[in-house]
Design goal:
The chain is mostly helical. About 75% of the residues lie in helices and about 0% in strands. α1 packs across α2, α1 crosses α4 and α5 crosses α9. The longest helix has 24 residues. The chain is elongated.
Length: about 180
């Protein structure tokens, strides 16, 4: 059912993923969808939690790195791996779902706490990664990096954006190189 939510949101935004359409798309009885989720909001929260679980798996792998303070290349790679865990260039559907939820939260109060929690979690992960990589003023730099990740997400998701993920990855690498100079 969650895969159906992803497909529907990618095709038509948050409003497209109604309980009825999720049932039709997934081939599951509408009663089962209502039983498991109960509401459109609960369905969207479950989809966001799935994205979070996927990110957590990628983050767990990235955070296993042991860093040597004198290893600039290793510290840069660590921060980049963490950023790629929360900004998976190759997982566009995840990025679309998150962007659509954040957009919906502007006008739909039922999604605001979820959007706020997602932002808080992102900042915390990036702040901890920067502290681990011994970046000066990690709190402020986490805000800058959060803004960059948000902007890169926007570029990857929306039609006006750059679709060349290699170019956007280079933007991320250069920013990290400025955070962790040689």
């Amino acid at each position: 059912m969650i895969d159906a939510v992803f497909r529907l949101v990618v095709r038509g935004g948050v409003g497209e993923a109604s309980l009825r359409k999720v049932a039709d798309e997934s081939g599951v009885n509408i009663g089962s969808v209502r039983h498991y989720f109960g509401s459109h909001e609960a369905l969207m929260v479950a989809a966001a939690e799935e994205v979070g679980a996927r990110m957590e798996q990628r983050l767990t792998a990235a955070l296993r790195a042991t860093l040597d303070a004198s290893d600039v290349v290793g510290r840069r790679a660590f921060v980049e791996d963490v950023c790629r865990a929360v900004l998976p260039f190759s997982e566009r559907d995840e990025l679309v779902l998150l962007a659509e939820l954040l957009t919906a939260a502007r006008l739909r109060p039922e999604f605001r706490s979820l959007a706020t929690r997602m932002g808080t979690d992102l900042r915390a992960v990036l702040r901890e990664a920067l502290r681990t990589a011994r970046v000066a003023d990690a709190d402020l730099e986490a805000e800058r990096l959060t803004a960059l990740v948000g902007g890169l997400t926007f570029e990857l998701v929306y039609p006006h954006g750059a679709t060349d993920s290699a170019r956007l990855a280079e933007v991320l690498r250069r920013h990290i190189a400025e955070l962790i100079p040689a």
